[in-house]
Amino acid sequence: MTFLGVVGKVITRVMDAQAQYAAALAGGLFELPSQQSMLRTWLDHVRSLRTKNLKIIDVNIVGDDMDYYFANLTCEAGVVRAPPVLKAMRDFNAVNRLEDLLNYRDYDYQILDDCTYDRKYNPRPEDTCYIDI
User: Fold this and answer.
1) DSSP state of 32
2) Cα separations (Å) of 6 from 55, 63, 129?
């Protein structure tokens, strides 16, 4: 049995990678490490939460480690890796959303290669916010 993490603060590409991982595992394309090895890795991760001022409840947060997560997940399963540029786009959007809530969606993105992208501010013509400020 495998579980896919359905989360609210990450791009959906993470769920795609998890699904590919689960399918590769079910298809016998790779085997999981031993239970002892997985437990050791998990406990190391839990202990590392303290250095980030996180608690055990935050054990499944990917956050800033998204690119590292993608790299490990896809390497282990032998599936195509999501390009690192997605993390850069996510990081910009996360900050921009906090700084400009009413307009943060008004950007058009173009991926140029695995590590770079171009973004252009493209204000939408209609007033999508019905709150009087």
Assistant:
1) P
2) 20, 14, 28
